[in-house]
Amino acid sequence: QVQLVESGGGLVQAGDSLRLSCAASGRAFSKQVMGWFRQTPGNEREYVAAVSWSGGTTDYVVSVKGRFTISRDSAKNTVYLQMNSLKPEDTGIYYCAARDGISLYRRPDAYAYWGQGTQVTVSS
Q1: Residue range 26-51, pLDDT digits in tens
Q2: Residues of 13-25 as b/e, b for ≥16 C-beta within 10 angstroms?
Q3: Is 123 in contact with 11 (CB distance < 8 Å)?
Q4: Which single residue of 26, 47, 52, 112 could bond 57 by disulfide (Cβ 3.0 to 4.6 Å)?
Q5: For residues 115 and 9, is the Cβ–Cβ distance under 8 A?
């Protein structure tokens, strides 16, 4: 079993930055692909970014490319999402997710393990 705990959300103004963290425990973190998703009321969970085992391969949805950076620290069993130049449309609950395997997927159903989420609110 895998436990994921997100932190770092909050209320910020447009143009500000936030760094989300996701602490993982329970299984071999270094052998899992990690992803970030977000969700707003009434909408489906949206893919944001993913990172490979080694951290050497990353993928982003086009709306955050160039503003967000996903990274991982295997020594700390933690994955990060650095969010810069935040926009009101980035508002939502951000979820960390993990999947066994080596491929980066954008579909939520490809990820077996999920955190409880952290709220990010960007005011205009």
Answers
A1: 877 778 999 999 999 999 999 999 99
A2: eeeeebebbbbbe
A3: yes
A4: 52
A5: no
